[in-house]
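Here we describe the complex-level prediction in full. Unlike the single-chain runs in Section 2.1, the two entities below were treated as one system.
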Amino acid sequence: MAKYLLLKHYRGAPAAVNDVPMDQWSQDEITAHVKYMGDFADRLRESGEFVDERALAPEGTWVRYDGEGRPPVTDGPFAETKDLIAGWMIIDVDSYERALELAAELSAAPGKDGKPIHEWLELRPFYGHPPTITE
Amino acid sequence: MIDATLLRSLTPGVIGVLVRRGADFAAAEDAVQDALVEAVRVWQRDPPRDPKGWLVTAAWRKFLDATRADTARRRREDAVDAEPEPGQARDTDDTLQLYFLCAHPSLTPSSAVALTLRAVGGLTTRQIAQAYLVPEATMAQRISRAKKTVSTVRFDQPGDVATVLRVLYLVFNEGYSGDVDLAAEAIRLTRQLVAVIDHPEVAGLLALMLLHHARRASRTTGDGKLVPLAEQDRAKWDTAMIAEGVEVLQAALARDRLGEFQAQAAIAALHADAPTAEETDWVQIVEWYDELLAVTDSPVVRLNRAVAVGEADGPRAGLKALAELDETLPRYSAVAAYLHERDGDRRTAARLYAEAAKKASNLAEREYLTRQAARLNN
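The structure predicted for the assembly as a whole is:
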């Protein structure tokens, strides 16, 4: 019983095996990809392991505090930002092995020529609650 | 005001009656859940004289409503007439069978936990979902799949009490205290189990839970900071609960069938027994760790034993015991940091505390370990 974040990147992940950008796929290939993602989420709902999924717009704004009484400073987007998150899925599973298995399944989503993208996903454990019995 | 705990304590018995009348477990469980919801609504203005009888009637009606096929209904109604009213002994057996079924080895730990909380504990799917911070639909699915998994298991099949204890331990130890107090619920379910099965390890687990639960108020500060055992305000410990835990444990130990939960409870009892941290009987605690290792040898037990050795025989002895263990064990760095500080090596301790903070599995522990590193660095 542990929660994991499966993180997808627009940019910053190591190159995928089938690394052709989506704007160069056929309509059918895009449809097949979207369907795969939807089916994957449905399977997780069905297995009782789904927590959440979200997608993020690629363009964001950098914001910081600029001192008492002053408006926040904004900047960006920066083209040089290495890590650009595209979205995530949160799962609640029995083991780390199961989390790996699901991440691999998600990474197998079809891309160009209907072949798996082999996209690199980042798997991050959530902090849990401190256990009661420790000694 | 309805006593929700009393209401929920009737759940297993009512499911048992329905199953014996011919309902399959999954349908019986659903019907009893529906009846519980109705009870909360109706009892407020019209409390029944016989709560269990009321629930059986309501649940059976719900079950029949859910069963559409007329022929099947007629057959089941005949079965009702043929069935004598349940006696106390049957009720006890049913409750125990439900524990076995909900902790069946074919279930994953999270499914067994969810099913136990619903079918034995009488919690709603929403309450269980909130307690484990997952969407209600996800928890509903988990429970329904779990029911499907055990659908072919015969209700009267003997089960393994060890699997039940593991599930209850999980509920207690990994429970998040939100709307539903899972630690208290685990204690209630273990108490109920003690009442229906005579087994020293069941008593051992109950004692272990009580002895740890008794320290709950002192374990964290108001703002959620962890307080280690040695620094806890022992005046905040629940002495009545400790006394009960010790009594339960002594009765179990007298049976001379030691198991891991009794040994763990014995260690907790020795901590609870010390008026101050300095007066802790570490020599006896090390002996109990040796007993624990004899019944269940695990790296985590060896790690905790190294801490106890460090207290009993000095930090060097503790470090020596630690050196025999795998450095990748969870909390290894934290233990090493503690022993090195006790040994006077503040620099190594600070480095190890910082390392341990990075490997912590929860935020409270990470913050605690980071503070230890910061304390030694400044």
